[in-house]
Amino acid sequence: MIEVVGVAIFSIACMSIATIYGIKKMTEKTKV
User: Fold this and answer.
1) 14-to-3, 5, 6, 29 alpha-carbon distances in Å
2) Does the reported pTM lie above 0.90?
3) Could you report the per-residue pLDDT of 8-20, keeping only the tens digit for each?
């Protein structure tokens, strides 16, 4: 159970980080 929860949290964290990174890149492109 603990391993499954850890993998779920890790995947969600990666997705959120990737989303934030993508948004930052998009805002930088629109600013320029």
Assistant:
1) 16, 14, 12, 22
2) no
3) 999 999 999 999 9
